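Table S4 entry, Stress protein.
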Amino acid sequence: MKKWLVILLGALFLSACSNSSEGENEVTTKQVIQAFKEAGLEAENPSELGQKEFGNTREEGKRILVPALGDDAGGRLFKFKNKEDLEKAKAYYDELGNSSPLLFSHTYAKGNFLLQMNGEMKDAEFEKYKAVMDKVIK
């Protein structure tokens, strides 16, 4: 009887360990930003976004600067809790751009991540950021 109890407890322990390691392999905004940099893309001075930027609907939110676009220009990288909230945020940025060319920005969603970049960025350059996200986020 003790033998079966030890085997059962051991199996439960191993199961708990394997479940916790899955969470550790989850991609973060920090990892995506690092991947941008490793690919030779600008993603400078990452900083936390305030709660006003989609509040409790997101897990993480970072602002990044792209010096080639000018002073204080760049974009945002969000990780959302679910697809529905991500789609609402993407629609918000896309609708802003549709309302006025001055408010246009590039947006790309992959997994639960949303990248929003200044509309001054060339399409070809934005494609490079998208390609990095496609490699990092499964």
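Confidence is low (pLDDT under 50) at residues 1-24.
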